[in-house]
Amino acid sequence: MNRDDVIYLALLAFSMCFGLYYRRINDHIKKKYIGASLGFLIVLIVSRVHIIHVLITTIVNGLLILYTDRRKCQVYVFSFSFLYLFFFRTTAYFGIPYPPSHTNLVQMMLILKIIGLAFEVNSSYQLSLNKGDAQNNTDDERLENETFQIKDIGFLDICCYLFCYCGVLTGECHPVYKL
Q1: N or C: which terminus of the chain carries fewer CB neighbours within 10 A?
Q2: pLDDT by residue (tens digit) across 25-64?
């Protein structure tokens, strides 16, 4: 077993143990920032200097979600993410050292989460457009439209969601995470 694998397993074990403390945090805002800070630290430990790829993906996709048309933001995020993933996987051809294998894992998990978030933002926008038709909906449809809407989110909310320590190494996100 090489050094990176030992670090990865130690971080997974630490994350599981930290969950016992994390569950006891009642303040939603404090919990969000603690989870994101720890997640960022884990990514930094695993990726070292190659964290730049994770940061580029996060910044560009966050801006795409916030500042492009919400009817098409998922298309833009999907396109950029997979184009950048193609670049990321071929960095050796551009004279850039190939990132560690665990950074590859983190990058793929991040891309899956950001694309899912873009689709959720798009769905929420579509639901808000349909809200005008709420008079014709049944009570169940109205409840669904109100329950699953993402309210105004900011760049920091996106970063906290993506870097939540629960999912940076495994792809999971805290089951009650709220944006």
Answers
A1: N
A2: 999 999 999 999 999 999 999 999 999 999 999 999 999 9
Residue 39, in any domain of the structure: no
Split into its structural domains, the chain has a count of 1
Q: 111: which 2 tokens?
A: 């891309």
99: Cβ–Cβ under 8 A, 6 or more apart, which residues?
47, 50, 53, 88, 91, 107
Rounded Cα gap, residues 122 and 160, in angstroms: 19
Amino acid at 77: V
Whose tokens are 């959720």? That residue is 120
Residue 20: C-alpha distances to residues 7, 81, 131 (Å): 21, 33, 40
For tokens 């190939």, name the residue.
Answer: 98
The residue range of the domain holding 64 is 49-162
pTM of the predicted protein model: 0.85
CA pair distance 70, 125, nearest whole angstrom: 7
Q: What is the CA radius of gyration of the chain?
A: 18
Cβ neighbours around 12 below 10 Å, total: 13
Residue 88 and residue 60: Cα distance in Å, rounded? Answer: 15
Instruction: Report the SS3 class of residue 115.
Output: helix
